[in-house]
Amino acid sequence: MTSFQRYKSVFFILLSLIIFSSCATQTPNIDAYSAESDKAKDFNAILKEEISYFDKEISYYRSNDGFDGDVVFAYVETGQYSIAIRECKKAINLNPDNAIAHVILGAAYFESEEYMDAIEAFKQVSKIKPDCSVMHFALGTAYLGAEQYSKAINEFKQALKIKPDCSLMHFGLGTAYLATGQYSKATRAFKQVVKINPDFAEAHAYLGLAYLHLKQNTKAFKSCKQAIRINPDCAQAHFGLGTAYRRLKEYSDAIKAFKQAIRIKSDFADAHLGLSLSYFSLKQYADAIKAGEKVLKINPDCADAHKMLWAAYLGLGLSYFDSKQYTDAIKMCEKCLKINPDCAVAHTLLGHVYSLLENTDAALEEYKILKTLDKDRANQLFNIIYK
Question: Which strand (E) or helix (H) includes residue 319?
Fold first, then answer.
């Protein structure tokens, strides 16, 4: 889920600042933190505006029982989740009401993608302090990770009852609506975000994506371009532009936009897929294959990439056939059939090539297969073999 993966960065940055505020004697230096973390840069201005509120809200959590949350959270930041979890559990055994230990425990589970355990940890904090908007926000985000979207929406709504002017919480709600296909509601949520924080680039980008789903292309262009004006390195905005251009069959512009998204975020699977589909539409099959194979390296289970690839292999095979490069045509047909064994066109083409190469036995094998897939194509191939 692309939107959630990007959204995780927002949550983790905010949670980091919450914990730093809880463990330290003064509010953290947000500029310094952003300088150390590229993923914080997009949200630096937003966090500056809202951290003072969060700092007040979580001051309740400051621990006086010797638990060094700063040190333990460093384990989370460096990926040493098991150590962080162990230390938090020790602290909780000594003091079940140690809220900051529960928060860090939830963060450790969240970052290790053990979302149900994260939910349980954040629930413990909410029991200690039920009216904390930050913990409703944390729960909403964990529910997003667990793909329990209705619960995520409820938690974000609870957070907004307490803190109605928090752009990040509206952003979380919009992300949940986007994940569940509630695109009209998503647009309302993201509009609220940019009303509160007009320079929130990601919110403009996600608003554009929601508009794309609603087939409101003009509004999608406007939102994505606004995101890029604010932050030229907003990958989601370039992806949105590429998708809009592809929908309008402006494939060359789509390719440029998808390439920008990939330049910013090299493992952006959806952008690689959009690039692949755009090349395919221009019958640039070799480039389509290259981009499609990158999708599968990132997400091996992407059904759309598999579908595009077998079609691109077939298209390239037909091109090789037309230029009498029969060996290459065979290779492309075989790659196509490895993904889609029932592709009648590929079996027909393969049989035709074998016939031209005077490999009658191989051509007849393709004919036998075609008899069970497409009788008309089988008869066509039979006539080619014995013309």
Answer: helix 303-322
Q: 53 near 166, Cβ under 8 Å?
A: yes
Q: What is the pLDDT of residue 373?
A: 94
- Report the C-alpha gap between 292 and 276 in whole angstroms: 5
pLDDT of residue 74: 80
Residue type, 341: P
* Mean pLDDT, rounded, for 27-43: 35
d(CA 292, CA 278): 11
- 125 pLDDT band, cuts 50/70/90, is confident
CA-nearest of 141, 71, 142 to 100 is: 71
Q: How many CA atoms lie within 13 A of 327 on its CB side?
A: 0
pLDDT at 237 over 90: yes
Phi, psi of 337 (to 5 degrees): -75, -20
> Is residue 333 within 8 Å of residue 349, measured between CB atoms?
yes
Query: How is residue 277 written in tokens?
Result: 């589909």
Q: What are the distances in angstroms from CA 339 to CA 276, 306, 333?
A: 17, 7, 10
Q: Which residue from 208, 201, 193 is spatially nearest to 41, judged by alpha carbons? A: 201
Name the average pLDDT for the chain: 84
- Write down the pLDDT at residue 65: 59
Amino acid in the structure at residue 322: D
CB of 205 closer than 8 Å to CB of 234: yes
CA 127 from centre of chain: 32
pTM of structure: 0.78
Q: Which of 223, 146, 232 lies closest to 186, judged by CA?
A: 223
Residue whose C-alpha is closest to residue 72's, from 41, 98, 53, 38: 98
* Cβ neighbours, 10 Å, residue 54: 24
Are the CB atoms for 21 and 28 separated by under 8 Å? yes
What are the tokens at 126? 């909410």
